């Protein structure tokens, strides 16, 4: 099984979806560690309760972004991950960091990229008058939320939706999409080559309705 380390900043519901998926005997990845940039991230306790090693690296404990990332990279060296899954990790990784783990960092973002990268994505989708919304799992490259797409899933935007109600609807499909995308990657069915996702077609990662 491939070794996956999950990065979180918050509640960790996507991280837990990966943990639950990895309990299946035929799942091709195991979660070998959870790293947070927040000491009080709710997901840390959930991971610890599953017996998963957890690590918090709080940015203000380090003099610079470089020093912060160096500490995380050192922890990663010990965990020797085959794949790093960003799951609500709200900090941009540097080019140096990404190059050290080139092609093996994936992220989930709660919009249909390339629409609405960055923050406040649900409110922006509503303000734009979108009638569908969704989520994307993609390879991480230096640009924020820009890397090649592995899979996507969509939900309707309903009249009366607020950013919160839409976020809740999208989160449900995030929990389906992420384990499927990690499965594809861990099985070697999709990889990043020449800045593109190659192998399994994107739809192979999409939850079937
Ligand atoms: C998820 O909706 C995830 O897609 C989003 O944060 C939430 C984390 O929830 N990520 C981003 O916005 C990254 N830019 P979780 O901690 O319960 O998984």
From TrEMBL:
Pathway: Purine metabolism; IMP biosynthesis via de novo pathway; N(2)-formyl-N(1)-(5-phospho-D-ribosyl)glycinamide from N(1)-(5-phospho-D-ribosyl)glycinamide (10-formyl THF route): step 1/1. The keyword Transferase applies. Residues 2-182 form the Formyl transferase N-terminal domain. PROSITE patterns: GART. (6R)-10-formyltetrahydrofolate binds at residues 65, 90-93, 107. Keywords: Purine biosynthesis, Transferase. Gene3D superfamilies: Formyl transferase, N-terminal domain (3.40.50.170). N(1)-(5-phospho-beta-D-ribosyl)glycinamide binds at residues 12-14. It catalyses: N(1)-(5-phospho-beta-D-ribosyl)glycinamide + (6R)-10-formyltetrahydrofolate = N(2)-formyl-N(1)-(5-phospho-beta-D-ribosyl)glycinamide + (6S)-5,6,7,8-tetrahydrofolate + H(+). The active site is at residue 109. Its EC number is 2.1.2.2. It is an enzyme of class 2 (transferase). NCBIfam families: PurN. Belongs to the GART family. HAMAP family: PurN. Catalyzes the transfer of a formyl group from 10-formyltetrahydrofolate to 5-phospho-ribosyl-glycinamide (GAR), producing 5-phospho-ribosyl-N-formylglycinamide (FGAR) and tetrahydrofolate. This is Phosphoribosylglycinamide formyltransferase.
């Amino acid at each position: 099984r491939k070794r996956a380390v999950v990065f979180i900043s918050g509640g960790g519901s996507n991280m837990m979806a990966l943990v639950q998926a990895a309990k299946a005997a035929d799942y091709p990845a195991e979660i070998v560690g959870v790293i947070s940039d927040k000491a009080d991230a709710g997901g840390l306790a959930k991971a610890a309760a599953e017996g998963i090693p957890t690590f918090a690296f709080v940015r203000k404990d380090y003099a610079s972004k470089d020093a912060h990332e160096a500490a995380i990279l050192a922890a990663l060296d010990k965990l020797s991950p085959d794949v790093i899954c960003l799951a609500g990790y709200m900090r941009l990784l540097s080019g140096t960091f990404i190059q050290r783990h080139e092609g093996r960092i994936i992220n989930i973002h709660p919009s249909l990229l390339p629409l609405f990268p960055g923050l406040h994505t649900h409110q922006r989708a509503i303000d734009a008058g979108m009638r569908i919304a969704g989520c994307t799992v993609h390879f991480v490259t230096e640009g924020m939320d820009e890397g090649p797409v592995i899979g996507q899933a969509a939900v309707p935007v309903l009249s009366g939706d607020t950013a919160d109600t839409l976020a809740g609807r999208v989160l449900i499909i995030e929990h389906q999409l992420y384990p499927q995308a990690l499965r594809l990657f861990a099985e070697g069915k999709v990889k990043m080559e020449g800045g593109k996702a190659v192998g399994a077609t994107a739809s192979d990662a999409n939850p079937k309705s």
